[in-house]
Design brief:
The protein is α/β, with parallel strands linked by helices. It is built from 17 helices and 13 strands. Helix 13 links the parallel strand 9 and strand 10.
Amino acid sequence: MENDRQRQQSCWAYLPSICLSHVFWWLDDRDRSRAALVCKRWNQAMYSGSLWRTRTITFSGRPSRSNTSEFESALWYVKRFGKYLEYLEIKFLNPYNAVLTRKFQVTMRGLLSCLGKCNSRLVSLTIQHLELDRLVWKNIIRNQFIKNLIIFLKRMGTHLVHLSLKGARVTLEEGCELLNSLSYLKNKSFASEINIEDFFSHHLSIYSSPLFHQTLSTFRNLAILTLNYNCISDELLDILCEHNAHSLWTINIKCHIHDPHGQVIWGMSWANLAKRAPKLKVNFFFERVMKHNSLARILLAEIPLRSISLRSCYFSDPDWSMKPTLTNLLPAYRHILQKLTLEFNNSHELLDEELLQLVLSCKKLFFLKIWAYLSVAFVERLLQNQAEGKCTLRTMKVRIYTNRYETHEEDRMLRDIFRRYRHLIDSELNYFVIAYPMM
């Protein structure tokens, strides 16, 4: 019995360090701490930098007994392992009241201060959906949090590559000060990926702000830029063309009905940027901006558009028609469009033929997602064209809206279609098609 025990111990004792680190990688913090008590070698494995390079710290926005431990464990982690950190994501989920936002602000002050002193490796910081314009953020708490974050970004600006403050909802001045903090030491920033979607408060016409243009001109190595259409202007496109054409390859643009989007952009500005940045891909995401006049003003033929998403969010307008967009506007991108997402309530018009012709005309289209009032026959025709090599989809997701509570007949027809094309679907497609009652 004693010999067996010695043999079992020796197996673990001679386990290669890389294997031991891999075992620790699968453990949560509590189990790692317990395992570190086993022996000196396991304790050393606990401090392997590879275990602590990536971290997501989540704070619940609801009052509970676990709140205190969440805040304490976050500080404990940063004090002990913050020096190894390279990728940090912080989540604060739907704060319920000012007491919790205050506790979050105090914790973040300590966390950012400690991290700023001990860390020189951080390359990615993500803090999304703070919604600092909500009433639960008292002015003094909000201002102090922004101040702490600015100080931290000034320290980290020289080596921070990725920054996402999506959904922060700050003022123009606060937002520009936050972004300017990345270029504090050198008057220019070499961050390559910035996500400022929903970064500014609602209804702001950022596109007309010289302060915003001056701020964006400090970025000299952007590869991926994500922002709202209310930030886009000829001046911004010229700035990107002058300072980032060598590196820029993706611009993600969200256009929401509540954000200003009536500015005029010249096609020449897009054409110049596309010429200077030949690898550039532009992805548009529209929410409730569905009318042809608005879309035609935004979707200029010179844009190197690779992906477009048009979502009406179940809203229906009998005076609105999708046909002009499907037949006149989107076909302009038939040689370059790769991803198409359409979610709209077209209960007042049939669009099967227009949708099918659009898909067939887009020779590079590989991703298709449609939620709309369609006939089941649309799915069969699309699969038949796929089988004949007339389209080259790799993903096909269709939700067929119906005005009936029961979808038994549609379900039966879809099952029959699936059986007939099962070999094609299994070999070529990420396929998901259902009938959905819209009552």
